[in-house]
Each structure stands twice: as C-alpha cells, then as structure tokens.
Design a protein that fits this description.
Layout lengths: L1 E4 L10 E4 L9 E11 L1 H7 L16 E9 L11 E5 L8 E5 L3 E3 L6 H5 L2 H14 L7 E4 L5 H12 L3 E6 L2 H9 L4 E4 L5 H8 L7 E4 L6 H6 L6 E4 L12 H7 L2 E4 L2 H7 L1 H16 L7 E6 L3 H9 L6 E5 L2
Parallel strand pairs: 8-9, 8-11, 9-10, 11-12, 12-13, 14-15
Antiparallel strand pairs: 1-2, 3-4, 3-6, 3-15, 4-5, 5-7
Helix pairs in contact: 3-4, 3-10, 9-10
EC number: 1.-.-.-
GO molecular function: oxidoreductase activity
Protein name: NADPH:quinone oxidoreductase family protein
Length: about 325
C-alpha cells in the first residue's frame, strides 16, 4: 500500500508519499481499499499540530473516506468482504488502504457513488445535528448560513430546505452566491460587497433570521448576531476564518437569543443511537435526491498537496475529493 505519511506535523510540505506494509485488521477492525477521500478543514489543522486530536506519530491524515472491505477482523459480523462503506475515523484516508474501526463504517446502499460517499458524513452529519437537533429549526423559519458555499455550508443549505425553512446564504463572492442559489438558497448576501446587517434587515423585513449557522467566526459573528430575531438561535459550528470571536453577552439578553454549541463528534460518541437514526435519515434523503454533496473537484490521491493548496486558497466551493484510480 501507499500513503501520505505525516512524520513531522509542521505542515503540508512535510507530508511524504510512501510505500508501507499493508496491515492486517485486528479484532473489531476492517481493512479497506480506499476509492475516495475528501479534504476537510481538520485535515489541514492536524498536519500543522493545531487540531484538538493529536495522533501518535507517524500517522496518515485523511479523516473521511469511502472504499471496499477487503478483510475483516475477529468479531466483525455486520460487515463483509466486498462491501462498500464510508468511514470518518479522523485519520488514515489519504492512502490506498487503511485499517478502520468497524463500528465507524457506514454501509452504503447500491447506487451510492464513492466520491459522494467520501464527502458525505462530516458535512451532512454536522449540519443536520446543528440545524435540526441543536437549532430546532422549523418549517417556515428563516436561517442565515455563513460560509454557505463551503462543504458544511452547502450541506446546511440542502438540509434547511429539506426541513422547509427559508434560506439566506452568505458568501464571499458572486460566484459562491450563484452556487448557493443553484442548490436551493432563497436569497444570498455577498458579504465582500454588501453590508451584512443592512442586507439581512431588508431580506427579513427587519425581523432578522431565526437561526444563524456559523462555521466561519471572526468578523462576521457580531454583525450576524446583532441581526438575529427574537428567540433566535446562534449556532457555533466552527472557526474556519481562524480567530475565535467574542460575542457580547448583553446581545443575547436583549434578543432573548441562545448561543448554541455544535459538536457533532461528541454527539456521535455520547448519543450513538440518536446519531445512527440521523445518519439513516440522511442516507434516505440522499437516495431520494433531496441532498447531494457539492464536489468542487476530484484529484488523484498522489496530488494531495495540490488539494491542500486549493483548500487554502479559500476558493473551494463544496468539497475537494482525492481518488485512487
């Protein structure tokens, strides 16, 4: 097997494509032949030693991937050789093969393409948990999605529309706003040329959005929160822009609003039954055509560094996926 090996977590340039022995699965594990792996923001942080999870060195980055089971370890009964699965295990995906915990592998129904499967779990699970569980978004409500053209943003647009909400998508360029409209957003705000608060006031007749989905942070957080509707819910999803914003608590008081943390990873661990039910619903929505990952581009697995560079350019719309031919 071959893999991108991180032996020194000082950044993408330190990654090396190496030939390694193909491992054997132990109890509770499966060996997967990887067909596709998507690039997520944590995949960048982890090779820079900036992510909350710090795997032992050396490790293979690539948190989310899809492939075929080629061997199963002792005690694995719900998966079989030849079965197609998707997995989000945190590491191991940027390779030709990987050992994956069997419990973390999601069997794929027939007709679920590998590229879509590799770009599915993290963004859709995060957005579903955020909007419908933590945000309690209801049909007829208005949701503002920041960073709407990114991986989680595009998933959030589709999930909010499936829930019957009105979607206002905010992006940093006209091209990104156009994409958001194509996948279902009711209105868009280009925050590089428009004042966010003025645009929200006009689009909501002064009421403000009921739910704000924020995976960006930084300078957008406070003006967005100042625009929130009475009893609104501000979803803290992530900080893709880098700095963690500090919101004045008096705004929550004046708006009767809630600041709600979203941590899908721990939700999946602490409430596995609820998470499994959610994933089942999401797969059903995919098969019904209600949701579909937006793929910015696919690149050969050997071009992982180019994929990282493209993600760092902040021009990605949807997800970048690496594929093994």
């Amino acid at each position: 097997m071959h893999a991108w090996l991180c032996e020194d977590p000082t950044g993408v340039d330190a990654l090396n494509w190496k030939e390694l022995p193909t491992p054997e699965p132990r109890a509770g594990e499966v060996l997967l032949e990887i067909h596709a792996a998507s690039l997520n923001f944590p995949d960048l942080l982890i090779v820079q030693n900036k992510y909350q999870m710090k795997p032992a060195l050396p490790f293979v980055p690539g948190s989310e991937y899809a492939g075929i089971v080629v061997a199963v370890g002792e005690g694995v009964t719900h998966l079989k050789v030849g079965q197609a699965v998707a997995c989000l295990s945190g590491t191991g995906g940027f390779a030709t093969h990987t050992i994956a915990p069997a419990a973390m592998c999601m069997p794929l129904p027939l007709g679920f393409p590998m590229v879509d499967a590799a770009a599915f779990i993290m963004t859709y699970a995060t957005s579903h948990h955020a909007l419908l569980d933590r945000g309690q978004l209801k049909a007829g409500e208005t949701v503002l999605i920041l960073g709407a053209a990114g991986g989680v943003g595009t998933a959030a647009i589709q999930i909010a529309k499936a829930a019957g909400a009105k979607v206002i998508a905010a992006g940093s360029s006209a091209e990104k706003c156009e994409l958001c409209t194509r996948i279902g957003a009711d209105a868009t705000i280009n925050y590089s040329t428009e004042n966010l608060r003025d645009a929200l006031k006009a689009l909501t007749q002064g009421r403000g959005p009921d739910v704000i989905y924020d995976p960006v942070g930084e300078d957008l957080a406070e003006p967005a929160f100042r625009s929130i509707a009475w009893r609104g819910r501000y979803l803290v999803v992530g900080f893709a822009a880098g700095p963690i914003p500090a919101l004045p608590f008096n705004l929550a008081l004046l708006k009767g609003a809630s600041i709600v943390g979203v941590f899908w990873g721990d939700f999946a661990k602490k409430e596995p039954g609820a998470n499994a039910k959610m994933m089942q619903e999401l797969v059903g929505w995919y098969m019904q055509g209600k949701i579909k990952p937006v793929i910015d581009r696919t690149l050969p697995m050997g071009e992982a560094k180019a994929a990282y560079a493209h993600m760092g350019s902040r021009k990605v719309m949807g997800k970048v996926v690496l594929v093994n031919s």
